[in-house]
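testing teh design pipeline on a random one, pls ignore if ur not involved
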C-alpha cells in the first residue's frame, strides 16, 4: 500500500474497520471471550481504541459512546440480548493466556 496516498489509505482503513464491525455484528454468537482467547482483543478493545484515537485528536468521544458505536446499541442492552455465560474452559483459557505474560490488547 506504499503507492497509495495517505487520504486514500485512511479511507480504505476506515472502510475495512466498518466492515469488520459489520462482520462482528452479523456474528453475535462470537463472544468477546472467544475473541480474547483467539486473538487477544474483543469488541471492548475496539471501543477503547476508538475512544483513545478520538482523545489523541482532541475529539470528544466517551468510552460508552464508542462502545455503543462498536456494539450497534448500548452495551448493557447487547449483554442482555447476546452475551452468554462463559464456560469454565473459556475462563481457564483466558486466565492461562494472561498468566503466560501476554498483555491484554486494550
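output:
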Amino acid at each position: 500500500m506504499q503507492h497509495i496516498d495517505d487520504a486514500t489509505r485512511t479511507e480504505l482503513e476506515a472502510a475495512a474497520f466498518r466492515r469488520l464491525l459489520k462482520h462482528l455484528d452479523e456474528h453475535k454468537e462470537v463472544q468477546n471471550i472467544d475473541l480474547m482467547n483467539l486473538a487477544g482483543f474483543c469488541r471492548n478493545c475496539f471501543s477503547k481504541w476508538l475512544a483513545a484515537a478520538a482523545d489523541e485528536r482532541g475529539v470528544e468521544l466517551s468510552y460508552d459512546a464508542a462502545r455503543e458505536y462498536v456494539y450497534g446499541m448500548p452495551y448493557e442492552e447487547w449483554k442482555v440480548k447476546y452475551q452468554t455465560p462463559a464456560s469454565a474452559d473459556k475462563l481457564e483459557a483466558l486466565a492461562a493466556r494472561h498468566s503466560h505474560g501476554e498483555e491484554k490488547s486494550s
